[in-house]
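Reagents: none. Just compute today. Dihydrolipoyl dehydrogenase.
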Amino acid sequence: MSTQQFDVVVIGGGPGGYIAAIRAAQLGFNTACIDEWKNDKGGPAPGGTCTNVGCIPSKALLQSSEHYEHLNHHFAEHGITADNVQIDVAKMLARKDTVVKQNNDGILYLFKKNKVSFFHGRGAFVGAKDGLYEISVNGTPTLAAKHVVVATGSNARALPGTPFDEDKVLSNDGALRIGAAPKKLGVIGAGVIGLEMGSVWRRLGAEVTVLEGMPTFLAAVDEGVAKEAAKVFKKQGLDIQLGVKIGEIKTSKTGVTVAYADAKGEAKTLAVDKLIVSIGRVPNTIGLNVEAVGLKLDERGAIVVDADCKTNLPNVWAVGDVVRGPMLAHKAEEEGVAVAERIAGQHGHVDFDIIPWVIYTSPEIAWVGKTEQQLKAEGRAYKAGQFPFMANGRARALGDTTGFVKMLADAKTDEILGVHIIGPFASELVAECVVAMAFKASSEDIARICHAHPSLSESTKEAALAVDKRTLNF
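Predicted 3D structure written out:
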């Protein structure tokens, strides 16, 4: 097979990779993207972890399970009642798979539209010669490129001595494929994946116990939001135990047994049908053959890059989960765009200080910028304003008044330093705050902008007003 030469070759077709490839092609570069994800028929399934076993399928299951919970527990107050309500888990999973395939096919369409050459298989470095990098696909050297963008993502981190079998001990992948709601479900790790997957199966009838090693719940989240979330999740039925130390884990034909010490040091045992392990993710450089070109990795196995996503090699770049920074799909996308533009001699930019975070539980949790605890630790003087959804007309009409919006602003300049939301559609509401912070807006700016009535976004305005202690509806 003859070697095909490209201006840019992207290894990995997840959010960072496919976006980098599309933007590079838009900028006039002859571009290729290599991705090895397969669908159940062995065909290409670009989109990476996010599309195949992460963001997209988890949101599909969260939506289905939330419909089921609303029908069982909340629709009656709207005058809607139903008898013999049942959940067809197989059909729910099939819908999830359809949503995933639609996204896979959408990426393949975008490659064709933007004239990106797609290669299905595992990409790896072979060597470098005459200013070009030779890349193999499935072990066969087939591509050469001046620029290479590595976007190979991350893998679920397993507990030492307890590998994933995706039957009893599950990663995020297995957690999305459980064929029926288990009677008892264990979750190790009270992070985003653990809480979202725990919520899905709790709504469908599982008794869920979450074991978290940290002594505080959602330590990265604003303390007020985390406190509210813990209260709500406990009321919903999630048993979240903090400060635990995991011991021996045993699997059998019937389930999993977890030995652990609780926060007081007392020995406990948890017996469950299924165990989801969600203790973080590790950069994926398996099979990339970095040794062939001398690509540098750090002690975590991540590719070492500078602020512009440049590696130690000329014209080799890396983005997304495989480099430093938060493992978020939208962060990877922004880096992918920025790298493509830097290759073109432009000034691509990513502001890591205003990347939004979201946990898609019910209520949703979203935030951007600094938390109160961070500002206190920095010794920065700030003002805080908070407004509850209970006082918002649209939230009352929705029947979902849990939570609040909190805004933090500099005590002297009034610049918005952080916004923290727990409540309905928090994932959408946070976008306004990201825009405001990108333009260095003050809380007064948000307070003076007209928001539609009735809308949930009025709570953002009211939180801004609260910074100056002049809320109008609370």
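The mean pLDDT is 97.
Action item: order primers for follow-up constructs.
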